[in-house]
Amino acid sequence: MAASDSLNNWGIITIAAVIVLVLPSIIMFSRADKFDVKGKTVLITGASEGMGKSVAIQLAQKGANIIIVSRNVGRLEEALAEIKASAANPSNQRFQYISADLSEPDGNARVIAEAIAWNKGQAPDIVWCIAGAAVPGLFIETSPEIMRRQMEVNFFSCNDMAHAILNEWLAPGSVGKGNTRHLVFTSSVAGLYTIAGYAPYSPSKAAIKSLSDTLAQEMLLYGDDVKIHTVFPGSISSPGLERENKTKPEITLLLEEADKNYTPDETAVAAISGLERGDYLVTVSFLGSLMRATAWGPSTKNNYFVDTAMTWLSSIVNIFVAIDLNSKVKAYGKKHGHPSTYPKKA
Ligand SMILES: NC(=O)C1=CN([C@@H]2O[C@H](COP(=O)(O)OP(=O)(O)OC[C@H]3O[C@@H](n4cnc5c(N)ncnc54)[C@H](OP(=O)(O)O)[C@@H]3O)[C@@H](O)[C@H]2O)C=CC1
Ligand SMILES: CCCCCCCCCCCCCCCC(=O)[C@@H](N)CO
């Protein structure tokens, strides 16, 4: 056998080895859980009901210690009992609730201080902001107080919580130890793609994306310990949706008809699997991904090939969707006259 033949053989063996050994590990690696909560302490706001409670239950099932935060103590106690009952390993996992109004500037810092005291002096490893509310209404009929309050409940609850926890995670002695932390915000598809009737609400959710993008880049100054993510749920059949629908203008209900309601559990499953894939901006449905595709802007993509292709697709689809939505609004206005004459819902 000539020397070049044996070289060829070795070449083939090497290529075969690469395919057999390396490829599966690349696939395994890319499939690795990027949001492993087992044994971690996770603080979740707005977890006494709706999506937040479902997230808390599912992360308890995956072995996390859980701290839930909201205002109403009775509902916190009931939710905590359900969350505890879902623990993967009840003897090792710990559970706590903290009552706070997170729309208040001091509420978030106090929550983090209490969480650290309870967690044996350690900051929680993961903070997921889910507290929020929607007060839909036509713009000129909504009071400036409601608009400011929407900003406080949705945007500032995220902003102030980020401020409190990042001051812990990013302290000089705390970074560079290979200890990955996650800060997750919860926005809405209405923060990406808004419709008539959401003027008091959508801006507070869109501002979360801007904060998220800014922080994601700023975190690079500190190494790569802290990961930022934002979840954009579509409509969730939650107690919150029932409340907001009591005042929601009919035209808003009509326009959002295309967005299917998912249960809090379904929303939580999809959001968590997005985080496990390592996504930065997480959606929970295909329609949500289309809305995200119209709104990426300069945000870091989850997958440059897929997300860029979706951007192209959405720019074509949206030509027709925008015509349809605008013509629905015009037709509604024509049929029902000046909005001041509409029957009051609440
Ligand atoms: N429902 C929907 O269709 C959609 C909702 N979203 C967003 O997803 C998140 C979850 O929604 P959903 O499941 O409907 O939530 P719910 O309205 O059912 O529950 C909201 C939770 O947040 C808490 N909360 C509200 N205000 C405050 C506050 N000021 N301080 C502390 N906690 C507060 C509530 O408890 P308490 O009142 O006791 O404080 C409760 O635990 C929210 O951020 C919402 O804006 C996004 C897209 C669609
Ligand atoms: C190419 C793009 C196509 C997109 C078509 C979309 C049609 C409009 C859907 C708007 C849905 C808004 C749901 C908001 C839910 C929410 O956040 C509130 N329930 C507040 O709690």
Short description:
With 346 residues, the chain is of the alpha/beta class. It contains eleven helices and seven strands. It has helices spanning 3-31, 50-61, 73-85, 105-118, 144-169, 202-218, 239-245, 250-255, 264-277, 286-293, 304-336; strands at residues 41-45, 65-70, 95-99, 126-129, 181-186, 226-232, 281-283.
Question: Which residue ranges are poorly predicted, with pLDDT under 50 across at least 5 consecutive positions?
Answer: none
CATH topology: Rossmann fold
CATH homologous superfamily designation: NAD(P)-binding Rossmann-like Domain
Whole-number radius of gyration? 23 Å
How many domain regions? 1
Mean pLDDT across the residues is 94
Major sheet size, sense and barrel closure: 7 strands, parallel
Quickly name the level 1 CATH class: Alpha Beta
The oligomeric status of these chains comes to single chain
Order of helices and strands: HEHEHEHEHEHEHHHEHH
How far apart the termini lie comes to 91 Å
GO molecular function, one term: 3-dehydrosphinganine reductase activity
Main location: endoplasmic reticulum
Catalytic activity: sphinganine + NADP(+) = 3-oxosphinganine + NADPH + H(+)
Protein name: 3-dehydrosphinganine reductase
